[in-house]
């Protein structure tokens, strides 16, 4: 299993649908190489993908940082974007601020944040309108 701490940061750009999903795919491969249980890899990959897509769709730029220790996998996502006016509303399944264009591409069903929370053992979100959003996702290895 994980013997020492590992960290990798990915940069995500606004509306970069061509590269969307590359960070979460990389994370999947890294965790598999570390010998992490497949059920945990799926949870982390799902949460990472949803978070990555939120940055692509709604922010100008963001970073996604993977940190793996012997006891936890954590993902920190910070973006420069419009922020979220009502986090409670954004956490409701089906609520979406995606544009029609994004919906036509198959995104924006309003399940991103609720799915991230479901896949996490610990989840925290903070947002400031006009500045951006910060997510903290933790999945315990024990």
Features:
alpha+beta, 142 residues, Heat Shock Protein 90
User: What's the oligomerization state?
Assistant: single chain
Radius of gyration: 15 Å
Query: What's the helix count?
Result: 5
- CATH fourth-tier homologous superfamily: Histidine kinase-like ATPase, C-terminal domain
- Euclidean distance between termini CA atoms: 11 Å
Order of helices and strands: EHHEEHHHEE
DSSP strand content: 25-35%
Uncertain runs: none
CATH topology: Heat Shock Protein 90
Average residue-wise pLDDT: 92
Q: Using the 3D structure, state the CATH architecture.
A: 2-Layer Sandwich
Based on Cα principal axes, name the global outline. Answer: globular
Q: Please give the CATH class.
A: Alpha Beta
Helical amount among residues, as a percent range?
Answer: 25-40%
């Amino acid at each position: 299993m994980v013997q020492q701490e590992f960290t990798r940061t990915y940069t995500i750009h606004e509306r970069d649908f061509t590269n969307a999903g590359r960070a979460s795919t990389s994370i999947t491969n890294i965790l598999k190489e570390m010998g992490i249980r497949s059920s945990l890899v799926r949870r982390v990959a799902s949460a990472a993908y949803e978070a990555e897509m939120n940055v692509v769709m709604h922010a100008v730029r963001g970073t996604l940082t993977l940190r793996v220790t012997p006891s936890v996998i954590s993902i920190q996502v910070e973006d420069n974007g419009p922020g979220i006016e009502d986090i409670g509303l954004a956490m409701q399944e089906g609520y979406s601020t995606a544009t029609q264009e994004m919906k036509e591409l198959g995104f924006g069903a309003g399940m991103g944040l609720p799915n991230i929370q479901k896949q996490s053992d610990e989840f925290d979100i903070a947002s400031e309108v006009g500045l951006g959003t910060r997510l903290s996702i933790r999945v315990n290895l024990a």
